[in-house]
Design a protein that fits this description.
The chain is α+β, with helices and mostly antiparallel strands. Helices cover 17% and strands 33% of the residues. The two termini are 26 Å apart.
Length: 189
């Protein structure tokens, strides 16, 4: 990986039992199409850009994720040499076969004058196993890939792992080829 992309990783942000419990909860709920942000002040649905479901779990699950993110905020600040004030409410995501999110940036680019521009650090928490071989509770494809002008880096996903990166870093989720990918996205401001 060398020095690019600069990532902050916590391998056991959630233990296997916590991941299993969150995935079970997400599987039991209906989701709605996840939005994208452009020049409008509110998100819109564009399944040519982002095709995935956003699921709303219990308040307890949301509070658990926020509490854990705030517990590691100081370490994230130190790693990226930034001062952070809060984290946004997490998005609980369910990518089904064929779902994806094209290459994009989450904020801090200076290009748009939206609330999302306040995002300094993006986080992704992987909840289930990525595997090239189909099986129960695994998914194929659905890779988190970082790109810049000269290279790309595919993030190896492990259940329970948190990866944090600067919000202006270009990244994507490749199409899921089998199974369902469960993850949580949030942003520090």
């Amino acid at each position: 990986m060398a020095n690019w992309p600069p990532l902050f990783i916590i391998e056991q942000f959630f233990d296997p039992l916590a991941c299993e419990a969150i995935v079970a909860e997400l599987k039991s709920l209906e989701g709605s199409a996840a939005t994208v942000y452009g020049r409008a002040t509110s998100g819109s649905i564009d399944q040519n850009v982002r095709k995935t479901l956003r699921v709303k779990p219990s308040d307890e699950t949301v509070k658990l994720v926020i509490r854990r993110l705030l517990e590691c905020k100081e370490a994230v600040e130190k790693h990226f040499a930034v001062t952070l004030s809060e984290c946004e409410e997490p998005q609980f995501l369910r990518y089904r076969e064929g779902d994806f999110f094209v290459a994009h940036q989450d904020g801090n680019t200076g290009l748009l004058q939206l609330d999302t521009e306040l995002r300094l650090i993006s986080t992704v928490i992987f909840l289930n196993q990525q595997s090239s071989v189909p099986g129960p509770d695994v998914y194929g494809g659905g890779s988190l890939v970082f790109t810049n002008v000269s290279s790309s880096y595919e993030m190896p996903a492990e259940p329970g792992m948190l990866v944090a990166f600067r919000s202006e870093t270009t990244h994507e989720v490749t199409p899921v080829t089998h199974g369902e990918r469960f993850s949580i996205a949030s942003w520090y401001r």
